[in-house]
Amino acid sequence: xxxxxxxxxxxPLPFEKLVPEEMQRRAAEFYAELDTRRSVRFFxxxxxxxxxxxxxxxxxxxxxxxxxxxPWTFAVVRDPKLKHEIRLAAxxxxxxxxxxxxxxxWREALRPLGTDWQKPFxxxxxxxxxxFRQAFGTDEKxxxxxxxxxxxxxxxxSGFLLAALHHAGLATLTHTPSPMGFLARLLERPENExxxxxxxxxxxxxxxxxxxxxxxxxxxxxxxx
Length: 225
Hints:
Number of helices: 8
Shape: globular
Distance between the termini: 39 Å
CATH class of the domain at 78-208: Alpha Beta
Strand order of the largest sheet: 3-4-8-7
CATH architecture of the domain at 78-208: 3-Layer(aba) Sandwich
CATH superfamily of the domain at 78-208: NADH Oxidase
Strand content: 15-25%
Helix content: 25-40%
Structural class: alpha+beta
CATH topology of the domain at 78-208: NADH Oxidase
């Protein structure tokens, strides 16, 4: 059966209440899985099986959003020529950033990561997913429609996407060359779409390494009342 609240139709929530032991098992397993996710900068060019990215994007699109506007577009780039153009444009911005935009404090924070302006992974990774934030949308009549909490909504969807890609057995990197206006230009996106995140996706290279980092423990990232 369905019910209505105001003018909107509501449906019963499909929800299974789990026993505490199963809840704890699932929570622990999910944490253990995500705890192995690392930002990867050394990719293999091995192709991703068909259908995997599609389902991961479907998972990302299940994220909550302000007024259910779903203000996101996931642009998947696999064309080598386009990936090359993206790399050149990103490196141009990154070269300027590393030379003139970074503060001394910022440079010191980046030092353990060993990063610089060169971004070969933008060509090596078999796919790039560019997440765009839709600053506004259009209604059924094609008229401009306000989107709400777009930063928060697209941030949530991006988190879902990263978790889904990791769960599917893929490596990722969250890359934010700034400014990112070149992405909308190269991908010919409409004026309402603003680049939010650039995610190289694929398999890590056979000799891939990652920085030796330690995550903050629970008592440093949570407060209980």
